[in-house]
């Protein structure tokens, strides 16, 4: 259809004027006439139109009269042109639309009372608006419902063949899982090939279906729309920060919806660059953890060998007495704390304040340590900014994107949709460099499969190719000639042929990727788990920044080096100072001015500069008895970290382990006290997403049982320890943060960050860069283990939290199987379900295998969400010497038939 000129950032669409109902209206040439009409505030019926995808023009509702034409025109598929004279109202149009409604209703069952869409149905609304009562010739279709999908049911008796489901899946999501098929004399929507639906299960088709033809298995027959309370909040699964409506009935979450809806079909296509308002499978169908039967509803206190339900007061007395005694006897350094980046900003802020001002210790850390801090430290070091510089609009409108080390669809599915729009609408060149055959690689213009763990070497090759091909931006390099010389000398020894041999990315591909990136006017590098959660993550981000510097892609609009955050508030955790090296606002913990400011604000003496250990150091100190009490909020180190980190030994040695969590996790089972925390659906606050947007989290329901918000428990604990905190709500904490970090809450807009490299390039850059481009020796030797075992996230889960959501477990249960490339399986003479022995330097275990086309040859994969069998224990750990980030997601293994 191509109604897209207004969304092409390179071509300014011609401004035109046309007349609508006698008024002159300004518009852009070539956009949908329907959009122009709706931009004036006139809403004419449109049952098959949605502004997020190309018009289909089937329902016959959006009719208007165009001067010079005898018959009404479908305004959705008509392009606006200069001088058009349009009429949108009149008896003739009303009757024509009424006829269209009658046509649809004549083959539609009138089962409204038992339809999920009753009260939320465009066909119902249209019938009402047009007074359709005469259905004498109505006939039934009698099509059996398709209930084969784990999340959606398809009732094609109700389908009006508007194709919105097919179009959103194909045009917006580029998944293309649905089609029309003529069956039983009717055009029906069926999953491709008329097989059971096999897709990403995002539910966007459900969202746009204007009738009840697609229904949500998890909420069917549970409610009537008027019984539902709808709360706008932010998803708690990943750093994309999607806005969602949590719909509750009494104390039960019945469904999740989002701004993408047939009800919300009027908009400017260009706005989709900022997001299309949909959700992924986790956001839409992963809500059942909130009111799960497994939720903790009472505090638990260890009595003998057992955790026993105990009233809050008694539990808190015990906890406070034990903390106080340990502090008195062994000093504040004997206490440490860990918190999850699924907590709100306000809670993260309060946590570090409690540790520093309450306990007076600086041993604290968050799950941002698992990788995001590699990015933050590198970006701060080189550019002075501690987060990604690019937002969703930048990604959508980029002309070139290098995605390196990121299986983006699995970790950040809605950011992936931005890249898909960049590919489909804006025709971006996308280079995907990964050791897995990722979903994005299949859509990208330049998919490159590399050997696992060679991402750093690929970057060396890209920098070398950029220099060799003279793709240099002189404006950027000429201001720092010495730094540029130092970089050239640092990569002098790099040979593209050697890089190609070791990485699997050919010399031509390296040159092509370098050229695409350097020559595009808006180029972005997106790096994630394959860089930041791996050894040398910090150095590899610095190398990517080198590449962006010499090609002039730093500080330019729509350019930069960015990352993804897997948990919803990793950025917030860093910004709120939950790391021994940072105070709130990412001020250095050792910076005297900042220390004075916070000491004054909190009216305390802060722990000494340079004190405090991060995660790995904290666990080491627990093991050697220096740390005797550990406060863990929402983290589960026992289930997350490999056995070689000896977490159990560390926790065993503690005199006091207090775990605060909505669930009785593996770590909580070892605790002396377990405090029941509520989920983000039961509290207010904010998350900071990967773009740097601060987004509201809103209380949708009362806390379950006696669980409480984390901020509430921390406030009680702090006051019992002698602090005088007067927070009565998350807003009170927010007010304090606002005073200390002016501008942090920027009304949902990403705060502007301006990268500046001058200081870095003028100070010690030469020494810094000299050791960065080391070519590691190729893997070899007679003890070499031929396979690379990778652990990581899959689309249907997020950390361990999603495993508490039955809906997601239904879609993706723990198969307990090692995923392998089918060719490798053939070579090993194993088939699906065969048990193999997997051996790493850390140990050996037996498990069954399953084929997976997305797994590259000589690699194998196990989802990090599951510990049965405990594949994570095969991993060894490497700790980054600069950032303290532990990497434990990749190791070499031998695989043999058991
Ligand atoms: S659930 Fe999502 S991926 Fe699956 S068919 Fe619907 S729109 Fe497509
Ligand atoms: S299933 Fe719904 S969205 Fe899809 S064609 Fe039918 S009515 Fe339209
Ligand atoms: S993309 Fe992330 S934030 Fe958005 S719905 Fe999915 S898990 Fe939630
Ligand atoms: S909205 Fe135009 S034909 Fe359906």
Which descriptors apply to this entry?
binds FE2/S2 (inorganic) cluster; binds iron/sulfur cluster; alpha/beta; six-stranded mixed β-barrel; 19% strand; 31% helix; 898 residues
User: What structural class results from the helix and strand content?
Assistant: alpha/beta
Q: What hetero molecules are bound to the protein chains?
A: iron/sulfur cluster, FE2/S2 (inorganic) cluster
Mean model confidence by pLDDT: 94
Number of strands: 36
Q: What fraction of the residues are assigned to beta strands by DSSP?
A: 15-25%
Categorize the overall geometry. Answer: globular
Helix fraction by DSSP (H/I, runs of at least 4): 25-40%
What is the multimeric organization of the chains shown?
Answer: single chain
Q: List low-confidence stretches.
A: none
Describe how the helices and strands are arranged.
Elements lengths: L14 E6 L2 E6 L4 H7 L23 E4 L6 E2 L10 E3 L3 H15 L16 H8 L22 E3 L9 H9 L5 E6 L2 E6 L12 H5 L5 E3 L12 E6 L8 E7 L2 E6 L23 H5 L14 E4 L2 E4 L2 H19 L4 E5 L5 H15 L4 E3 L5 H12 L8 H6 L2 E5 L3 H4 L1 H12 L4 E6 L4 H5 L2 E4 L5 H14 L5 H4 L3 H10 L5 H8 L3 H13 L3 E5 L1 H4 L4 H14 L9 E4 L6 H6 L6 E2 L3 E2 L3 H11 L12 H9 L5 E5 L3 H4 L6 H6 L3 E6 L4 H4 L3 E4 L8 E4 L5 E4 L12 H11 L9 H11 L17 H5 L2 H6 L16 E6 L13 H6 L5 E4 L1 H6 L7 E6 L2 E9 L7 E5 L14 E2 L6 E2 L2 E8 L1
Parallel strand pairs: 1-5, 15-16, 15-24, 17-18, 17-20, 18-19, 20-21, 24-25, 25-26, 29-33, 30-32
Antiparallel strand pairs: 1-2, 3-4, 3-5, 6-9, 7-8, 10-11, 11-12, 13-14, 13-26, 22-23, 27-28, 29-36, 30-33, 31-32, 31-36, 34-35
Helix pairs in contact: 8-27, 8-28, 9-20, 14-17, 14-18, 14-20
The structure holds iron/sulfur cluster (3 copies) and FE2/S2 (inorganic) cluster.
The site of one iron/sulfur cluster (SF4) has 13 residues, from helix 4 and helix 5.
């Amino acid at each position: 259809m191509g109604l897209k000129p207004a969304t092409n950032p390179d071509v300014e669409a011609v401004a035109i004027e046309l007349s609508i109902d006698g008024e002159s209206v300004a518009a852009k040439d070539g956009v949908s006439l329907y959009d122009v009409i709706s931009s004036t505030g006139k809403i004419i019926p449109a049952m098959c139109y949605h502004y997020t995808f190309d018009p289909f023009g089937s329902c016959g509702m959006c009719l208007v009269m165009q001067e010079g034409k005898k018959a009404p025109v479908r305004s959705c598929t008509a392009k606006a042109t200069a001088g058009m004279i349009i009429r949108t109202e009149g008896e003739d149009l009303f009757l024509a639309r009424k006829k269209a409604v009658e046509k649809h209703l004549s083959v539609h069952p009138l089962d409204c009372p038992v339809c999920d869409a009753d009260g939320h149905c465009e066909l119902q609304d249209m019938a009402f608006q047009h007074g359709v009562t005469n259905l004498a010739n109505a006939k039934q279709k009698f099509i059996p419902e398709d209930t084969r999908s784990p999340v959606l049911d398809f009732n094609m008796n109700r389908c009006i063949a508007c194709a919105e489901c097919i179009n959103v899946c194909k045009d917006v999501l580029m998944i293309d899982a649905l089609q029309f098929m003529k069956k039983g004399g009717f055009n029906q929507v069926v999953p491709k090939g008329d097989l059971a639906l096999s897709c990403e299960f995002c539910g966007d088709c459900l969202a746009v279906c204007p009738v009840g033809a697609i229904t949500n298995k998890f909420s069917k027959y549970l409610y009537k729309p008027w019984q539902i309370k709808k709360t706008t909040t932010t998803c708690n699964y990943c750093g994309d920060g999607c806005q969602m409506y949590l719909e509750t009935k009494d104390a039960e979450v019945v469904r999740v919806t989002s701004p993408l809806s047939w009800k919300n079909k009027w908009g400017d296509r260009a706005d989709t660059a900022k997001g299309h308002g949909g959700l992924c499978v986790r956001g839409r169908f992963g809500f059942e953890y909130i009111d799960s039967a497994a939720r903790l509803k009472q505090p638990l206190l260890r009595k003998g060998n057992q955790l026993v339900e105990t009233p809050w007061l008694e539990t808190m007395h015990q906890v406070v007495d034990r903390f106080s005694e340990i502090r008195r006897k062994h000093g504040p350094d004997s206490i440490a704390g860990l918190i999850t980046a699924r907590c709100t900003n306000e809670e993260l802020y309060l946590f570090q304040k409690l540790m520093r001002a309450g306990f007076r210790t600086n041993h604290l850390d968050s799950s941002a340590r698992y990788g995001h801090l590699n990015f933050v430290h590198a970006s701060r070091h080189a550019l002075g900014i501690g987060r990604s510089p690019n937002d969703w609009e930048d990604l959508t409108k980029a002309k070139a994107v290098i995605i390196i080390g990121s299986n983006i669809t699995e970790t950040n599915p809605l950011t992936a949709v931005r890249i898909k729009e960049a590919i489909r609408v804006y025709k971006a060149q996308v280079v995907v460099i990964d050791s897995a055959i990722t979903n994005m690689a299949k859509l990208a213009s330049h998919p490159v499969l590399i050997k696992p763990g060679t991402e750093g070497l690929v970057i060396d090759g890209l920098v070398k190719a950029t220099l060799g091909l003279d793709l240099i931006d002189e404006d950027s390099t000429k201001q720092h000639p010495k730094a540029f010389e130092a970089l050239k000398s640092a990569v002098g020894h790099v040979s593209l042929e050697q890089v190609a041999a070791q990485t699997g990315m050919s010399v031509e591909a390296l040159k092509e990727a370098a050229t695409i990136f350097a020559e595009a006017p808006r180029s972005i590098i997106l790096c994630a788990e394959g860089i930041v959660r791996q050894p040398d993550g910090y150095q590899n981000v610095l190398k990517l920044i080198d590449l962006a510097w010499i090609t002039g892609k730093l500080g330019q609009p729509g350019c930069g080096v960015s990352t993804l955050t897997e948990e919803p508030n990793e950025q917030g955790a860093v910004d709120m100072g939950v790391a021994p090296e940072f105070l709130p606002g990412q001020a250095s913990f050792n910076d005297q001015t900042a220390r004075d400011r916070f000491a004054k604000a909190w009216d305390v003496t802060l722990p000494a500069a340079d004190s405090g250990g991060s995660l790995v150091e904290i666990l080491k100190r627990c093991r050697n008895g220096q740390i005797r009490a550990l406060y863990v909020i929402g983290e589960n180190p026992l289930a997350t970290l490999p056995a070689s980190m000896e977490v159990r030994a560390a926790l065993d040695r503690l005199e006091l382990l207090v775990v605060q969590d909505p669930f009785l996790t593996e770590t909580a089972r070892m605790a002396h006290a377990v405090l029941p925390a509520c989920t983000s659906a039961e509290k207010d606050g904010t998350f900071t997403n990967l773009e740097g947007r601060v987004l509201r989290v809103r209380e949708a329901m009362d806390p379950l049982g006696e669980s409480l918000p984390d901020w509430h428990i921390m406030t009680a604990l702090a006051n019992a320890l002698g602090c005088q905190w007067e927070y009565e709500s998350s807003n009170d904490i927010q007010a304090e943060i606002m005073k200390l970090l002016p501008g942090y809450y920027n009304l949902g807009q990403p705060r502007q960050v301006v990268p500046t490299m001058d200081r870095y390039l003028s100070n010690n850059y030469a020494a810094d860069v000299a050791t960065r481009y080391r070519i590691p020796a190729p893997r070899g030797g007679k003890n070499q283990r031929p396979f690379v075992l990778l652990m990581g996230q899959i689309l249907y889960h997020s950390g361990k939290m999603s495993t508490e959501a039955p809906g997601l477990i239904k879609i993706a249960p723990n198969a307990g199987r090692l995923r392998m490339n089918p060719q490798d399986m053939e070579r090993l003479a194993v088939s699906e379900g065969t048990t193999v022995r997997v051996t790493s330097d850390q140990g050996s275990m037996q498990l069954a295998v399953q084929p997976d086309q997305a797994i590259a040859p000589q690699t194998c994969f196990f989802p990090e969400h599951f510990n049965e069998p405990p594949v994570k224990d095969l991993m060894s750990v490497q700790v980054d010497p600069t950032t303290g980030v532990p990497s434990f997601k990749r190791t070499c293994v031998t695989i043999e038939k058991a």
